Amino acid sequence: MPDRDSLVDAETNIYTKREGEDITVRCYLTFSGSRKLLCKETCEEGNILINTTSNEDQRGRYSIKYEYHLIGSSILDVTITKLTKSDSGLYTCELKKMLSPDSEDNFIIIVTKGEFDPQNHENISQ
Prior knowledge:
Layout: E1 13-18, E2 23-29, E3 35-40, E4 48-52, E5 56-59, E6 62-67, E7 74-80, E8 89-96, E9 103-112
Parallel strand pairs: 1-9
Antiparallel strand pairs: 2-7, 3-4, 3-8, 5-6, 6-7, 8-9
């Protein structure tokens, strides 16, 4: 049986950024919830980066902002600043609510070596 790292949903978004850049990813969650989690890989002990009941929180380079929507998906914006190669991998946004199923969304970040240099960037829209 494959491990979780090899199981990627067809709808899992993949983002590629360079070392030193910041990223903000929007997670869409089908249920509302009082507890918000941001995790590297799964939301198990040792992988939890943020675990809060607040609508906004920050832990080091990681921050979240939650927007509740009565109709449609609720949104959890995740920001990671000053990306490093070790930030590459699968992330899980999760909402937990008593007596209801958990709601989660996943995304993958790939951090590449080197910083963005606009002088070496070709304009491909010519």
